[in-house]
Structure formats: structure tokens, C-alpha cells
Amino acid sequence: MNFFTVNQWVTDDPWFDTARTLALLGRFHIAPRGPWAAGDRWLNAFVALYRPAIARALALRDARVAALTARRPWSKVAIDRRVEVRSSVRVDWAADLRSLAHA
Description:
The chain has helices spanning 8-11, 18-26, 37-49, 51-69, 74-78, 93-102; strands at 2-6, 85-90. By secondary structure, the protein is mainly alpha-helical.
């Protein structure tokens, strides 16, 4: 499984750097209730478990974008349709679950 980031044109959403994105992620919480409560708790735990991997993907994205914007304006980098995925970080979910089970 991979966590990945995409270029700004893919979502056409505002672009937030790693620090801002992680601040927003720190506020992520779904209040468990109703028939989906177990899934809500699972998603909250999943995001917490993989926060370091998400942070690595974002930092890698920002480093690559910084290198590009040293040579080209941000407006050109953000709309470069030749680049869809900016970064990718592989995670081994099965291994992580085994590690949690042994902890």
C-alpha cells in the first residue's frame, strides 16, 4: 500500500505545505456513533497510526516542489499536467499489524 500526494491541478484544491497539512490532520477525528461507529474508530486509529508515513509523503512532495520552483514559477509547476503524483511512500500494512499485535 502507498500513501501518495498529487499535483495541485489534480484536485484543484488549495495547496497546503507539510506543516499546515499536518496541523489539519491533527484535528482529524470522526465521532463514533450509530451503525458506523466501529468504522469511525478504525479510521481514526488508521490515520493516527500512519501519521508519520503521511508526514514523509508530504515532506517528500514539498522537497520535490521546492527543487522545481527554484527553476520555474509555482504557477507552472502546479499546473504541469505531465505530473500527477508528486510523491509516494510505501507502507506494509500487514507487517505493521503484526508489530502492533506483538506490542
